[in-house]
Amino acid sequence: MKIHHIAIICSDYEVSKKFYTDILGLNIIREVYRAERQSYKLDLAIGEHYVIELFSFPDPPARPSRPESCGLRHLAFSVDNVGTKREELISKGLICEDIRIDEYTGKEFFFTQDPDLLPLEFYEM
């Protein structure tokens, strides 16, 4: 029917929480500390739409390589204006790749990354 959410394990919970809320602007739905797992679980939304579960675990293994390692290649967000979003993220200290044009759709997009080097794409809608 639709994707319910995407789960991300981060290496530094406070850094990633700040990144996804303060820099990307996602809204906190709920934050839970699970003592038995020494783990936080942060549910995040775009507007009212639940999209990301952010987890912390003690000593998670590093991502093997980027972006062509087996598994999730990148996480893509749709935006109204790619240029405006890129400038906003740069003003918040992110390094953003140049804007590219999708050869099949003609839409603009660019990549940046989260604190754990997960590639993030911003795509024109």
TrEMBL record:
PROSITE patterns: VOC. Residues 2-125 form the VOC domain. It holds the Pfam family Glyoxalase. It comes from Chryseobacterium kwangjuense. Keywords: Metal-binding. InterPro entries: Fosfomycin_Res_Enzymes, Glyas_Bleomycin-R_OHBP_Dase, Glyas_Fos-R_dOase_dom, VOC_core, YwkD-like_dom. This is VOC family protein. The keyword Acyltransferase does not apply.
